[in-house]
Every structure is written in C-alpha cells, then in structure tokens.
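Hey, quick one: can you model this chain's 3D structure?
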Amino acid sequence: MLAIRPQKFALSFTFGSLLFMGSFAILKGPMAHLQSLFVRERLLFTTIYFLSIFSTLYLTFTHGGASGYVLVMGASGCQLMALLWYLISFLPGGSAGLSIVLSAMWRVLQPVFVLCAKLQAACMARCFSWMTSSSAAPQT
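Sure thing. Here's the predicted structure for all 140 residues.
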C-alpha cells in the first residue's frame, strides 16, 4: 500500500497516530493529557506533531503524482519522528528502554543485513561481468 498509494497510507497512519495519542489521554485522563501537551518542555513537540498532522492531511488531499508522493511521505516521516519523540519522553526509562530494544534488534537482524549485502555484491559482480563480457564481444 505504501509504494502504490501513499495517500491512503498517510490517511491510515494519521488516524492511527491520533488514536495513539488518544490512548495516552485515556491512561492519564483527557484534561491531564491535554495540559501535559502544552507545558513548556513539550510545546515544541506539540507544535511539530500538530503541524505534521495538518501537513500530512493537506498534502494528501491536494497533491498527487510523484511530487505528492515525496511530500506526503516526508510529512508522514516527520509525524513518525514526533510520535517516537513523545513516546520516549512520556514513558519512564523511555530512552534507556529504546536503546535496549534497538540493540537487541540489531543483534538479531545483523546476520540478515550481512547476508543481504553479500547477495547484493554477488549479483552486482555477476551483472558487471555479464556487461563487460557482452560489450567485449565483437559485433557483426
């Protein structure tokens, strides 16, 4: 869905993002959560988050084609970064927990990345050798 219809993805992602924030409002209480969004320490996050939501929705409905694809995905990426920033700052031990999870994921995925790199190198070497051998052949 992301590669074919980024606007559809952006709509789903934006509404999921709003539901994510709503879940924190349920946990803390709606007024307490709303007040915590507008404290001085989180005001930058709140501004970036709501601007990214607005820009994602605006770009989704007004821009199409290749330029719309890039713009919508950029706004969605900004929205994702704001959500991760909020999650890290909201949860106790958020940054320490995140570093533990990321290091565990790296240990699990590192062999996969290494294998992919080796396969890509082998494919590129084969393609390069095929291209050089076919261009060196005399044409009749």
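One thing worth noting: The chain has a mean pLDDT of 83.
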